[in-house]
Amino acid sequence: MRHPHTRTARRTVVGALAAGLLCTAGLAVPAVAVPAVAAPAAPDAPDAAAPARDSVTPTRADGLALTPPMGFNNWNSTHCRAEFDESMVKGIADLFVAKGLKDAGYQYVNLDDCWALPARDANGKLVPDPVRFPNGIKAVADYVHSKGLKLGIYTSAGTKTCNSAGFPGALGHEYSDAQQFADWGVDYLKYDNCNNQGVDARLRYTTMRDALKATGRPIVYSLCEWGQNKPWEWASDLGHLWRTTGDISDSWGSMLSILKQNLPLAPYAGPGHWNDPDMLEVGNGGMTDTEYRTHFSMWSVMAAPLLIGSDLRQASDATFDILANKEVIAVDQDPLGKQGAVLSSEGGRWVVAKEMKDGSRAVTLFNETGSPQRIATTAQAVGLPDAAAYTLRDLWRHRSYNTAGTISATVPAHGTVLVRVSPDRRWAANPPAVELGLDGAPLLEAGKPATLTTTVTDLGRTPATQVSVSLTGPEGWTVRPESATHADSVPTGKALSTRWTVTAPAGTPTGSYDLTLRASHRSPSGARADSALAFAAGVVVRPPAGTSYLSDLPWLSATNGWGPVERDTSNGESAARDGHPITLGKVVYAKGLGVHAESAVEFYTGGTCRTVTADVGVDDEKNGKGTVAFEIWADGRKAAATGVLTNAMGAQPLSADVTGAQVVRLVVTDGGDGIDSDHADWADARLMC
After folding, report:
1. N or C: which terminus of the chain carries fewer CB neighbours within 10 A?
2. 105: phi > 0 → left, psi -120 to 50 → alpha, else beta; which?
3. Exposed/middle/buried for 390, CB within 10 Å: 0-12, 13-18, 19+?
4. By mean pLDDT, which of 14-18, 32-36, 63-67, 493-497 is the weakest?
5. Residues 217-243: what's their mean pLDDT?
6. How far apart are the C-alpha atoms of 579 and 538, rounded to whole Å?
7. Helices then strands, each counted (H, E), the chain
8. Cα–Cα distance for residue pair 244/339, rounded to 1 Å
9. Residue 542 has pLDDT above 70, yes or no
10. Cα–Cα distance between 134 and 128 in angstroms, integer?
């Protein structure tokens, strides 16, 4: 997919859809005249009248996509580059089998844009690119089918697809193109929204629905309408899945924005009709493995299609471990077909629960923030009946425990704990669940001892026995316990609390360093369980007394929706230091931070500062586009916020009292409409200490 900033400027979409987001490659050609959309009475008569619409809902009667589709799409990893070809597609099919992905449930190998020549033949037929696909699409489909897999293809509900080369779209050719796809053995169609000439979305997508049905071949139908016309409200009798958002990109901010837009749509999902928050970015390199596990966990609990977007020929073992986790996949593929519902999200601490067909609940504890957070709920809160105890299965660690009813964890920054919880008469066969905790933010000044307190809390119905705990840090650091690290028994709801002195060597540069808390315990029957919590300790420097520009101070952490956070320039594009002078309403600022929603930048203030001030807004470099909202947080308290700001509003003053805060966090959200063009500035941002 393309990044979220140049997409809008690099396409042509007419009429009410002009502000939309693309689903595939880059540029769209200028709009051209298109004949009135007319569907034929038979597939071989592309200009005749359309057949009468069947009153039976196709997605309910055809038996397709009764669980969210799983497979691969090349776009996120190759775009329209030359490596997208027949060899790649066959190689992916081979890897599906060799790496166990087929056995895990992955089925579709899908081609995105750029598979065809820019011109139709003399008979108006689509022509596969002979360089990319010298043996044609049917030969590729036959190969994929020989592996027990299925083939998908792409086109757009417009005169051209989304790429600048101007590949032919299907508008006005629906019946002819659908029959070609069926004749080739295609099993899945992704139908984009570019160059649609202002034709009503429902009409365009209905026509292709009817054209696919007329072929007589079962073809999963994916509406890539970008969510502009709320397809979740009308598309369940048209297609099997519909895009709810603009395109994803391989960044934490993009993934987070799309996640937040898709979560509220849970009531619209179900067997044969799914919300589609776009393809997976797992393995493409723009996020950490922790963030990719969150991405995969949240897509699974949302019952989203799982379409791998990385080039599996180059994927790491860690990528395969994430994509092939059958216990997580089982959450996504549960036949009840419920999308998980948000139970809470306060302070970026999310609890999302999904009802499963066997009566259990899949529960995600998701930490949006940049520091470890305790996130908790209960069996009753997620909808389970009262019971003496419950079995709690950790789907990433593949271990089962018993719990008296509490479901909680200290979750690393940007991490997710995914568990499956059920009332189970055999709960006592499992050791009690324990929660490893950390009291307070682990912030240290180099050369000065700091005190940290850790806890090991028994969540189980049975006591945890022979409990021991250890804490380790980087080489050269001193980590010394100041209280007990062992307990013979910890009863239900009680904790082993240990105080530690941690010292980073003098001269340690500011930044984030890994500490690991490990615990071991046994159940009353003697079964041993080991657990670990890795978290980041920040080596910090107190800000100087007086007034400082935030762009001159080191930050604790920074996340951004596109490219890096920039100092004293606008966000620019994806590369570092590619921004422009910060400009809001034609006023140029020499100092500030240039960011892109979703963004969060944290600064250590050490309880010595009073006020943060800034002029905030959408940078002029977006030429009138973009909607954002700004927040200033003082530790866990929202100290100040704007409403939604547009580019036309210019600079808005924002000030917050941060007295006593250890950490100040500057947050920019997407204004509720996706992150396209959301270039935001903290202009002239100052900290008074």
Report:
1. C
2. left
3. buried
4. 14-18
5. 97
6. 28
7. 11, 39
8. 14
9. yes
10. 8
Q: Indicate the burial class of 200 (C-beta count within 10 angstroms; 0-12, 13-18, 19 or more).
A: middle
Question: Could you give the CA distance from residue 673 to residue 1 in angstroms, rounded to a whole number?
Answer: 18
| Structure token digits, residue 447 | 């050369």
Average pLDDT value for residue range 367-377 = 93
Cα 332 to Cα 322: distance, rounded to the nearest angstrom: 14
In whole numbers, what is the pLDDT of the chain averaged over residues? 91
Query: Which residue intervals of 151-276 are DSSP H helices?
Result: 174-184, 201-215, 252-262
pLDDT tens column, 592-625: 999 999 999 999 999 999 999 999 999 999 888 9
Question: Is the Cα dihedral 340, 342, 344, 345 positive or negative?
Answer: positive
Please state, in angstroms and rounded to a whole number, the distance separating the CA atoms of residues 596 and 571: 6
Cross-strand bridge partners of residue 327: none
Cα 337 from Cα 115, distance rounded (Å): 33
192 is catalytic: yes
Lowest-pLDDT range, 383-387, 411-415, 439-443, 626-630?
Answer: 439-443
Q: Which residue has the tokens 């409200």?
A: 233
**Paired tokens of 14:** 């007419």
Question: Residue 60: what pLDDT?
Answer: 59
Examine the pLDDT at 566 and tell me if it is beyond 80: yes
- At 652, the pLDDT band (50, 70, 90 cuts) reads very high
6 φ, ψ (degrees, to nearest 5): -90, -10
Rounded Cα distance, 618 and 680, in Å? 4
Marked catalytic residue, from 247, 276, 424, 619: 247
Of the listed 85, 192, 424, 673, which one is catalytic? Answer: 192
Other CB atoms within a 10 A radius of the CB of residue 482 amount to 12
CA-to-CA dists, residue 485 to 127, 452, 455, 495, 536, angstroms: 70, 13, 10, 11, 21
Q: Is 530 a catalytic residue?
A: no
d(CA 260, CA 670): 10
Per-residue tokens: 338 = 């419920």
61: Cβ–Cβ under 8 A, 6 or more apart, which residues?
none
Between CA 193 and CA 177 the distance in angstroms is: 16
**What's the pLDDT tens digit per position in 414-426?**
999 999 999 999 9
